[in-house]
């Protein structure tokens, strides 16, 4: 007998042995396909209780063919399965109302079983939007304005799609439902994937209950799958999320957006017209259009602070929010407000992950202190993110009502995990509330570089969650994609990662290997060994598949073995086909097969050059001025690299040189352009928008990072910078690098400094339109890049590059040079 046959036999036949030997609290549910028990609910059950009773009835029927009646009082002599708390639980003497966060009680006695948690229906508070249409938004804004006496945006958000599809809100108490699903798992039911294709249903005509009394509490209180693209989710997806045991945080978590909540204070056009001084100054202009319509705040504005207080108090008083996000709008680390009060709060020596910390957290904490005076029973939250990841240095203890969300991925690098663990401990040391939550663990391929890769990481999930358990109360796993039409199922690969995550949220120390072996056996049947080999190999080698042909070919071979092992037209073949529809390994093979022969290799200066006085931090804090000959900020001049003719590789008529310095948080390029004719510099065609500057003189960076190919940053002699994400062959001008640039015109030359912040590996999962995704370039994980110059005179175009392409086109990835560095943090 194979392992598959043994496990399958154990799950489908094991219940039969219980009919002849069971404890006093055991009783028959079904015999010979006929019902022997009733499902009992109260006369007016909570929505989730009624839903749970129907789920129990449905799956008992799927297993045995028997339909257990749903009644409000048990019949004389009939076994009873009580579903939900309330009068029945009270009569049985079982307390469930003290349970929180989806916890539940399973209790049993002679001829009865109780599956219950607290009963509470979520009721949306008016005004709230039924849809996102303009008319509905205007209606709710007008009502909100009457309540607040101001022009704040709509923050209170109700996701009605689960209610429309299932008749329940995710905010309804789920303890009773979780108890039902626990009981069904005990009967052998599993939900590995949305819909019927993901169900495991053992078939048995006789069912017996043998349940011990127990109370089950999750290891993580907040267990949220964040639906970033709600228009994609179907009824099956919502059902699957509930069956996985999620908890969206009702009573613990805000109904409004949990991060970047400050945008709701200053996001409307009416507010911008009334309070222009509440917005940051960037290049002397108020930042009212940052992130489209949201704007970027000046955190030194007294008027903004007072309005933020009014907004927060209104959210607490009217919407009864238990917690409210008060941290700044997304992308706030692009630039600091130029006013004197803001500038003096910058702390460059804290590095890229902390230079805004005193500024942002000083504001957040000041607001929290004021709200604690009026609403001591409520929490406010802030996101530790980007340039304010680290705790501030100017506050010894934060306000006792402050919770912090710390943004981090599931890193396979032990050193990276150690860094984030240190950040968590540092935050806990200054948080009297001890309320720390993890966010930013994303499970779909928002990054083009990852789309089509078999990114399985169950062991990493388990290791990370065991580390997090000591520090955080819960976490948010994001189902995050910016594509609304999917040519493949979004969970083709990620269902396993999500399943493992949600099971470990309940019991982080359970046996992961047993969990996985059961999955391979039940989900893939006769193909279990081959799929196990494919998944385990992919888990070890997915990162290599981005650039290495050998693991791609090996993964393809293992997967083909699995396809052969599954009988055609079987459910196992259909499950494997989901993966086949998603995989793009042949495309990765094409990229991995790209030959980069005889391209330049450049070791950039890094912090290993710390013997040069001041280099460690003076480039951090330097106000860019375009000068690259100042050795207080730049290393010695002999580190310049020359550009050559783009097509021929020969020395061009006019010299162009560049230098680059690498830090953990950014790259700085300095480019020197010899120019005897500064009076006639060509600034391009301004009538053609941003892209118009590429018709004139410019210097350009092309960056293929360790996780994305590729980005383009262009600067002209007037200091105008345009950037674009050119990944997947599409030039996306909506992408914002966050780079800064300045130019200097000297005698017979112009020069440019370009500082490019690195958002970090996986940053595109947080926002694919902001930031350079990728770890800093190292010998093990180099980048590929090119630096080019274009000069236009009298209708003639001259082009030069660090790595010549042999053509008239600079953007030829096969000809990108290799970039690496040694540096410290």
Main beta-sheet annotation: 8 strands, mixed
CATH hierarchy class name of the domain at 601-821: Mainly Beta
Number of strands: 33
Shape: globular
The SS-based structural class is alpha/beta
Tell me about this structure.
The chain is of the alpha/beta class. Among the domains are: 3-119 and 172-217, Chitobiase, domain 2, CATH 3.30.379.10; 511-593; 601-821, Immunoglobulin-like, CATH 2.60.40.1190. Helix content is 29%, strand content 20%. It contains 22 helices and 33 strands. The strands form 7 sheets. Strands 20, 22, 25, 26, 27, 31, 32 and 33 form an 8-stranded mixed beta sheet that branches. A 6-stranded mixed beta sheet has the order 4-3-5-7-6-11. A 6-stranded parallel beta sheet has the order 12-19-18-17-16-15. Helix 14 runs parallel beside helix 15 and helix 17 (528-541) packs antiparallel against helix 18. The longest helix has 18 residues, at 47-64. It starts with a helix and ends with a strand. 48% of the residues are buried. Residues 1-24 and 608-618 have low confidence and may be disordered.
């Amino acid at each position: 007998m194979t392992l598959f046959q043994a496990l399958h036999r154990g799950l489908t036949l094991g219940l039969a042995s219980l009919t002849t030997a069971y404890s006093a609290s055991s009783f028959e549910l079904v015999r010979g396909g006929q019902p022997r028990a009733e499902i009992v609910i109260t006369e007016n059950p909570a929505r989730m209780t009624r839903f749970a009773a129907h789920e129990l009835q449905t799956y008992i029927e799927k297993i045995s063919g028997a339909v257990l009646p749903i009644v409000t009082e048990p019949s004389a002599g009939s076994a009873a399965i009580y579903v939900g708390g309330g009068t029945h639980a009270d009569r049985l003497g079982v307390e469930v109302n003290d349970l929180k966060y989806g916890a539940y009680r399973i209790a049993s006695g002679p001829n009865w079983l109780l599956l219950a948690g607290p009963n509470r229906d979520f009721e949306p508070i008016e005004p709230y939007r039924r849809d996102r249409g303009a008319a509905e938004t205007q209606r709710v804004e007008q009502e909100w304005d009457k309540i607040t006496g101001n022009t704040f945006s709509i923050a209170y958000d109700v996701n009605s799609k689960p209610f429309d599809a299932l008749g329940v809100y995710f905010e309804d108490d789920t303890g009773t439902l979780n108890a039902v699903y626990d009981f069904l798992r005990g009967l052998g039911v599993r939900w590995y994937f949305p819909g019927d294709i993901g169900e495991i249903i053992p078939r048995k005509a006789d069912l017996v209950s043998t349940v011990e009394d127990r109370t089950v509490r999750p290891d993580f209180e907040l267990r949220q799958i964040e639906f970033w693209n709600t228009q994609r989710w179907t009824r099956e997806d919502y059902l699957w999320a509930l069956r996985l045991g999620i908890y969206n945080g009702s009573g613990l978590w805000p109904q409004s957006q949990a991060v970047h909540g400050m945008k709701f204070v200053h996001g409307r056009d009416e507010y911008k017209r009334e309070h222009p001084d509440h917005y940051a100054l960037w290049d002397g202009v108020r930042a009212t259009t940052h992130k489209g319509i949201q704007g970027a705040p000046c955190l030194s504005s007294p008027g903004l602070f007072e309005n933020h207080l009014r907004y927060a108090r209104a959210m607490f008083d009217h919407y009864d929010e238990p917690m409210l996000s008060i941290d700044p709008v997304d992308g706030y680390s692009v630039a600091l407000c130029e006013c004197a009060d803001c500038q003096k709060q910058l702390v460059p020596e804290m590095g890229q992950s902390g230079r805004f910390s005193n500024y942002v957290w000083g504001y957040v904490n000041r607001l929290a202190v004021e709200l604690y005076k009026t609403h001591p029973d409520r929490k406010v939250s802030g996101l530790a993110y980007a340039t304010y990841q680290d705790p501030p240095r100017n506050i010894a203890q934060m306000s006792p009502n402050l919770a912090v969300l710390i943004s981090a991925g599931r890193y396979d690098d032990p050193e990276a995990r150690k860094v984030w663990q240190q950040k968590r401990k540092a935050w806990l040391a200054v948080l009297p509330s001890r309320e720390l939550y993890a966010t930013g663990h994303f499970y779909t391929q928002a990054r083009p570089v990852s789309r089509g890769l078999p990114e399985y990481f169950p062991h990493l999930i388990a290791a990370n969650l065991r580390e997090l358990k000591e520090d955080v109360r819960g976490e948010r796993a994001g189902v995050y994609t910016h594509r609304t039409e999917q040519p493949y199922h979004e969970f083709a690969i990620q269902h396993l990662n999500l399943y493992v995550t949600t099971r470990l949220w309940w019991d982080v120390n359970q046996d992961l290997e047993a969990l996985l072996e059961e999955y391979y056996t039940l989900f893939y049947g006769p193909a279990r060994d081959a799929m196990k080999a494919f998944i385990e190999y992919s888990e070890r080698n997915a990162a290599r598949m981005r650039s290495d042909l050998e693991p791609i070919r090996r993964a393809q071979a293992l997967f083909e073995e699995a396809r052969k092992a599954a009988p055609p037209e079987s459910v196992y073949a259909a499950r494997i086909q989901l993966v086949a529809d998603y995989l793009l390994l042949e495309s990765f093979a094409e990229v991995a097969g790209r030959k980069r022969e005889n391209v330049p290799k450049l070791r950039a200066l890094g912090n290993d050059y710390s013997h040069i006085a001041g280099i460690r931090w003076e480039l951090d804090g330097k106000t860019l001025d375009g000068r690259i000959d100042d050795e207080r900020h730049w290393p010695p001049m002999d580190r310049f690299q020359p550009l050559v003719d783009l097509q021929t590789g020969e020395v061009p008529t006019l010299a162009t040189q560049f230098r680059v310095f690498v830090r953990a948080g950014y790259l700085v390029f300095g480019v020197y352009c010899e120019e005897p004719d500064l009076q006639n510099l060509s600034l391009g065609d301004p009538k053609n928008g941003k892209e118009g500057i590429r018709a004139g003189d410019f210097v350009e960076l092309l960056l293929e990072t360790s996780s994305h190919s590729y980005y383009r940053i262009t600067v002209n002699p007037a200091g105008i910078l345009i950037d674009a994400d050119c990944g997947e062959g599409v030039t996306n001008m909506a992408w914002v690098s966050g780079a800064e640039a300045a130019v200097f015109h000297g005698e017979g030359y112009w020069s440019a400094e370009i500082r490019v912040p690195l958002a970090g590996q996986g940053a595109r999962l947080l926002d694919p339109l902001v930031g350079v995704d990728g770890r800093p370039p190292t010998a093990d994980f180099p980048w590929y890049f090119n630096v080019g110059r274009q000069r236009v005179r009298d209708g003639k175009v001259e082009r030069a590059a660090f790595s010549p392409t042999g053509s008239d086109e600079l953007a030829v990835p096969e000809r990108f040079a290799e970039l690496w560095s040694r540096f410290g943090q």
